């Protein structure tokens, strides 16, 4: 089946024969579509078979004109349109021109050669960059992007640097962060009292020595601090976990080079390209059975590793010296935003890090590492930040000027200007005062940068979210958007889906329009909004939010729904690890309906099944048990499904999962967890398929945190596709709540446009 790929490229690709190159490559591969060069970058649409399009993408980078340089490359697959030839479209000169701010770009090959060439004047200089690479978003203070408007303004260029900067033929012509060891920023090694231990190359060498000795180093990078330790030293990793109070969440790794990654993980062509890309995200990769010397405590029980390659000269020098993988996790306390300032880092991280490798180039805003997972042979962003933010998602039509403030967890915000939606970098959970301050700063920051005076502000309908409270405190029209609808609209927007569709919105929790907690929703989408078409049958969450971490409570809620009070006797063995008094409290809560809200959440059903199968009765972070359930499938191959039933009541379809749970209870006596888990996942895909059939819709849109689950997502997509449905899932924007701001913004824009039509 033919597909269309949309590509947007930023970089030194203008005026270097890039358009004719694209044209010739497309012609050679017999692809139809167009290429457009505008002030906002080069845009390409090409149509053909998926494998030819993949070849096209690969060769765009590999065979590009020698003089061109790609700083950012984003592609997504969308519906076939039926172009009949390939055209060069001439630059759009009408409309508002937006000067795009580029993300921070991984060091280019030429700069890399220089820092490892002992005769070069930038030998081992950790802040080497050029017009093609280096910091952008993290150093810019305001537009236009000139040195005096960046964090580099405090550094006066030396004669040699100035000459490069002023020479149009030089690779560093107008490279705003241009610097060298004579005139630019430098590194210092501090102990955790802030006393300087050493400077320059010696500081890096001592850091490496300390890491080798099992110490934990806080290292200031491009968009914030990392906490770094030896990934092969189990004691060091455990110590880091203990100090960071991060008991079980997987830790990201930085590998010295791609060869080392391939030794430890299975790496596809696409994954390799992502690892080596200018965006340089963390890529979730499947561990090989026989990996080298990684500590067990890096990602316990997790068959995937989150791996990135060095992306700044500093990281390259550090990793070359160390020559083994390191843990490189965000420099923050649990879920607070990542530290960016030296003294702030010292204060906040002194209980975690033994030493601090800092530098004097200020970071203007925090930008975390991005996270990418490959689903159905496509890139899916799970966290959109460094390398991507603040590049826009482009819409087909002009949008009113709006701000969307996102959800509560994994918050991002979005602003619109003309056809662009600028989604902020990942901000995080709005649970701490630090996160809330970061949230306010990012709103001011993005709206100032793009001079957005919004007509309205979009937020979640949950009145207690801090983001909603923020929206309601502004003196401006507020447009509340339902959470699960926002998920679906977000996915539709990035996939260019218009008109009617069935949205499958599965996540942990979000407030529904009926005041209950939703999370296993099927929404019929039309031009006017949505109608709740079906949902998972509800069950109680004894203790509300407490159940998210004590997932045995969810198991109790599910069993109580099926068998009432009796379940505690009948299935006493399922609660054998629970303290009697705690169990009694939960019993009372359920029986007397105390603090036990009903939910239709798919994410919570995952938790219940994880607890039933004995994987765990507790979760250290939301979604952990669900994740483990997915991982436990391993290489199990089965198409078996549990029974499920769709019922109709009050004009609404409800999916009855009680048969499934009963069968699972029987299966746990004789079958192993991988089989049960696969069968459970298969059943969920089957449920989606049967509701899709009942919906009479052709387009099925998958969104919400549950669709970060690779097995579920791929199983569902294949099942639906094989039966003639058109299926859409996330690519450029996260399926989790990081994608909510785009959905809120698009939904609000629709509403405003409709109101304007009415008035006209
Ligand atoms: Zn460079
Ligand atoms: Zn210099
Ligand atoms: Fe959500």
Radius of gyration: 26 Å
Structural class: alpha/beta
CATH architectural label of the domain at 187-359: Alpha-Beta Complex
How large is the count of helical segments? 23
User: In CATH's first tier, which class of the domain at 187-359 applies?
Assistant: Alpha Beta
Q: What's the CATH topology name of the domain at 187-359? A: DHBP synthase
Mean pLDDT, to the nearest integer, reads 95
Shape: globular
Number of strands: 31
**Low-pLDDT segments, ≥5 res:** none
- Tell me the span between the first and last alpha carbons: 42 Å
Biggest pleated sheet:
12 strands, mixed
Name the ligand types: zinc ion, fe (iii) ion
Percent helix among the residues? 25-40%
Strand percentage lies at 15-25%
Brief description of this entry?
This protein is 33% helix and 23% strand. By secondary structure, the chain is an alpha/beta fold. The mean pLDDT is 95.
Describe this structure in words.
Among the domains are: 91 residues, Alpha-Beta Plaits (2-Layer Sandwich), CATH 3.30.70; 173 residues, DHBP synthase (Alpha-Beta Complex), CATH 3.90.870; 154 residues, Orthogonal Bundle (Tetracycline Repressor, domain 2). 33% of the residues lie in helices and 23% in strands. It is built from 23 helices and 31 strands. A hairpin with a 5-residue loop joins strand 23 and strand 24. Helix 15 packs across helix 18 and helix 18 packs across helix 19. The radius of gyration is 26 Å and the shape is globular. The protein starts with a strand and ends with a helix.
């Amino acid at each position: 089946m033919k597909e269309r790929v949309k590509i947007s490229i930023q970089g030194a690709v203008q005026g270097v024969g890039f358009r004719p190159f694209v044209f010739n490559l497309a012609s050679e591969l017999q692809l139809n579509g167009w290429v457009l060069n505008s002030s906002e970058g080069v845009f390409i649409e090409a149509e053909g078979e998926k494998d030819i399009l993949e070849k096209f993408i690969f060769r765009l980078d590999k065979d590009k004109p020698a003089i061109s340089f790609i700083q950012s490359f984003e592609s997504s697959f969308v519906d076939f349109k039926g172009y009949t030839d390939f055209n060069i479209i001439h630059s759009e000169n009408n409309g508002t021109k937006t000067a795009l701010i580029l993300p921070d770009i991984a060091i280019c090959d030429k700069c890399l050669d220089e820092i490892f060439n002992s005769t070069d004047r930038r030998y081992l200089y950790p802040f080497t960059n050029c017009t093609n690479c280096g910091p952008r978003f993290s150093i810019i203070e305001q537009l236009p992007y000139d040195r005096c408007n960046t964090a580099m303004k405090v550094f006066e260029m030396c004669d040699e640097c100035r000459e490069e900067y002023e020479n149009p033929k030089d690779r560093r012509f107008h490279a705003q962060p241009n610097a060298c060891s004579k005139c630019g920023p430098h590194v210092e090694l501090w102990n955790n009292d802030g006393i300087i231990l050493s400077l320059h190359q010696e500081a890096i060498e001592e850091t490496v020595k300390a890491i080798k000795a099992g110490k934990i180093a806080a290292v200031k990078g491009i968009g914030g601090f990392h906490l770094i330790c030896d990934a092969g030293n189990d004691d060091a990793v455990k110590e880091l976990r203990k100090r960071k109070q991060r008991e079980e969440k997987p830790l990201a790794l930085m590998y010295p080079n791609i060869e080392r990654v391939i030794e430890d993980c299975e790496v596809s062509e696409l994954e390799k390209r992502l690892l080596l890309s200018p965006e340089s995200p963390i890529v979730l990769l499947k561990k090989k059975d026989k990996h080298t010397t990684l500590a067990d405590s890096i990602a316990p029980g997790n068959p995937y590793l989150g791996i990135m390659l060095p992306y700044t000269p500093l990281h390259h020098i550090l990793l070359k010296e160390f020559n083994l993988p390191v843990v490189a996790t965000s420099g923050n306390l649990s879920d607070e935003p990542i530290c960016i300032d030296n003294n702030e880092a010292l204060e906040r991280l002194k209980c975690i890090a033994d030493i601090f490798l800092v530098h004097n180039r200020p970071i203007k805003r925090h930008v975390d590492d991005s996270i990418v997972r490959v689903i159905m042979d496509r890139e899916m962003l799970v966290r959109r930040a460094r390398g991507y933010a603040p590049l826009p998602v482009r819409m087909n039509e002009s949008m009113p000027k709006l701000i969307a403030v996102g959800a509560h967890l994994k918050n991002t915000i979005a602003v619109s200007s003309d056809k662009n939606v600028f989604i902020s970098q990942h901000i995080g959970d709005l649970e701490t005062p630090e996160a809330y301050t970061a949230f306010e700063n990012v709103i001011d920051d993005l709206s100032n940068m793009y001079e957005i005076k919004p007509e309205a502000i979009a937020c979640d309908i949950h009145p207690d979210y801090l983001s909603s409270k923020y929206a309601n405190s502004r003196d401006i029209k507020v447009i509340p958007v339902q959470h699960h609808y926002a998920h679906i609209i977000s996915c539709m927007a990035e996939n260019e889906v218009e008109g009617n569709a069935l949205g499958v919105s599965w996540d942990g929790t979000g407030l529904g329009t009926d005041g209950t907690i939703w999370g296993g929703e099927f929404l019929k989408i039309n031009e006017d909004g949505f109608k709740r078409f079906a949902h998972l049958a509800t069950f109680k969450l004894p203790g509300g939010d407490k159940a998210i971490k004590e997932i045995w409570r969810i198991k109790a809620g599910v069993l109580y729904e099926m068998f009432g009070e009796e379940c505690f006797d009948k299935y006493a063995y399922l609660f054998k690890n629970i303290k009697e008094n705690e169990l009694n409290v939960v019993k009372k809560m359920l029986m007397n309906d105390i603090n036990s809200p009903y939910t239709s959440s798919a994410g919570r059903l995952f938790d219940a099944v994880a607890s039933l199968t004995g994987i765990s009765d507790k979760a250290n972070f939301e979604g952990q048990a669900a994740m483990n359930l997915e991982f436990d499938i391993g290489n199990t191959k089965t198409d078996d499904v549990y029974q499920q039933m769709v019922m109709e009541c009050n004009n609404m379809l409800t999916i009855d999962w009680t048969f499934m749970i009963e069968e699972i209870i029987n299966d746990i006596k004789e079958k192993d967890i991988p089989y049960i888990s696969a069968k459970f996942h298969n059943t969920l895909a089957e449920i989606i398929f049967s509701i899709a059939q009942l919906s009479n819709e052709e387009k099925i849109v998958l969104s919400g945190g549950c669709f970060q689950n690779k097995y579920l997502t791929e199983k569902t997509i294949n099942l639906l596709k094989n039966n003639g449905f058109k299926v859409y899932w996330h690519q450029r924007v996260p399926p989790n709540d990081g994608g909510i701001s785009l959905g809120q913004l698009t939904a609000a824009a629709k509403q405003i446009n409709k109101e304007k039509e009415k008035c006209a």
